[in-house]
Amino acid sequence: MTPNKTQLAETAKRAEFSKATEAVSALGAFPSLCNEEALFEIRTNGDWFYRDSPLPVKFCKLFSSILNRIDNQYFLITPVEKLRVAVVQQALVIVDYTCHPDGPFALKSSIDTEHLIANFEQFIIGEESVTLTLDRGIMAKLNRACFYRFINEFVV
Q1: What is the DSSP secondary-structure string of 10-79?
Q2: What domains can you pick out in the chain, each with its CATH number?
Q3: Which domain of life is it from (predicted)?
Q4: Which of 23, 35, 36, 38 is nearest to 79 (CA)?
Q5: DSSP, res 153
Q6: What is the pLDDT of residues 96-105, one digit of tens each?
Q7: What's the pLDDT at 7?
Q8: Are 138 and 131 in contact (CB under 8 A)?
């Protein structure tokens, strides 16, 4: 049996995750927290701030690649540093999505990051929001336009 695109993508994703996990394990435990105070903040609308100054999108995108959620707290983690991030609601706001015929969803965030999720079951549908968990435990929510489009396409 020849694997389809979805199976190949999932296999590649698992391999990447495995490599990342091995790399972190090789380093030992996560580095210690550099500062108890949260120097970064992600607000409800998805805007990122560093010490109350807005960050340009290119820096938000860069920092999101090292953003992790551990025990419901957010951190920027590198091999040598760990910084706390204050997140008002969800860390990412999804501004667009595409549902592929074979099941996966391609998501785009307000800071221009792209994410792939396997299926519909990963969405958590609430009365006033649709949220989901992305890589590294990061929580995301659909913006208002995506929320109504999603409800219209998949719920109603």
Answers
A1: HHHHHHHHHHHHHHHHHH-SPPPPS-SS--EEE-TTS-EEETTEEPPHHHHHHHHTTEEEETTEEEEE-S
A2: 5-87 (3.10.540.10), 92-155 (2.30.270.10)
A3: Bacteria
A4: 23
A5: I
A6: 999 987 778 9
A7: 56
A8: no
